[in-house]
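Sample 1 of the test manifest.
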Amino acid sequence: MRLRGPLPSVLASAGLAIALWQAVVLLAAPPAYILPGPWDVAETLWMARGQIAHHSVYTMAEVLLGLTLGAILGALSAIGLAASPLAQVLLRPMMVFSQAIPVFVLAPILTLWMGYGIWPKVVMALLIIYFPVTSAFFDALMRPPGAWLDLARVMGATRARIMWHIRIPAALPGLASGLRLAAVYAPIGVIISEWVGASRGLGYLILLALGRVKVDLMFATTLALAVFTLLTYALVDRICRRWLDAPSGPA
Amino acid sequence: MSAPALHVSGTARIGAEHVFGPLTLDAAGGAWTCLLGPSGVGKTTLLRLIAGLDDVTGFAGTITASDGLPLQGRLALMAQSDLLMPWLDVVDNALLGARLRGNRPDRDRAREVLERVGLGDHLHKRPGQLSGGQRQRVALARTLMEDRAIVLLDEPFSALDARTRSQMQDLACELLAGRTVLMVTHDPAEAARLGDAILVMSPDRLDPVAPPPGPAPRAVDDNATLRAQAALLTRLREEA
């Protein structure tokens, strides 16, 4: 059988996963409050679509805000670090050390400081993606082809103009790989923060459903979250392809 | 424009390790000087020292222009790799120097220069859409846009096929006329075609070799040029 494009593969894979799930439910026959079957979950997904959509809006807004702010802050930090050897000496160890703190432990502190609104979630997403974005972009900024820099020196370029006209454009593919990672990490930060304290959002809905032993709703919400994460990744990937990835052809 | 002569005299070392010299190089003003020698003899190091790019090699000696003015800001460099920015089109690549210095980019002049190197139909293509020879033409246009009295060429045509290379040699010779050109090459044929003066470099000295008669670029099938090429190759083989 010849398959064209990714869609048949995705559908076949999803079909297999659902079949396995259904087989477990049939063979092990767990109670519905432990593992609901795919049909139950699908039904709940449909029945609770208004509720899930309502909470999704907040989660998506938090993810996209966190991604945007984290990308901007991470990119600016990388440029600042790359431009200033002093900043590298002072800040790089601090940044690496900060990565030794599991970001999740900050979620309660952020909730304490900023309350139950969207901001602790946005900041959490920002924090969790800040390092991958900064690090990927910084590494790329530090590796421009030396011959380009030689040419620029002979041309009488200033450091700032070399940064703007050569190092930054040459490093954009590095920024893109950082952003692709960020697209997957950002929802994790938002959900953690919603668990710690929220009155809206998919993370909140999952905990709410657990409290009421609505396991089918937990599963349905989780599915919705997975779909949104994929959509976020697809969006970021599109932006990266359009604006940041290496232009066609060899350098 | 009366281009100054270039004078280099001294010894280069990296730490305690001897690289080349003591030697003296004189490149006459407004003429094309070819620096020929086997790989690893220090030709490129010498060129990079003149360009002020070598921060590793210690050079004890002097690098001066005959008019007594500093070299900085009066040099242009063209290397084996075209060094085009893949995200800029042909015109913007030719204007790179102006951009990097914060000058107003003169797009009309860039178009004119690109026309002269035969790229009039490709002004808005990206480097990835051009052939190797076309890319090196853009690099030549970028070098011409710099409009510097002294031009340093580091094997700029060695990655091109034979036909394209000979065409680029003709073009560069025509367009760089009047400037002081110092070209590093390992190709005796190139030195014989283009050199107003030919210097053969070995680790401890620079020997001038008489170029073939007639103005450069000499015809690829000119007998005297071919004999000079053969003599240069024989000499390089004996050096090794």
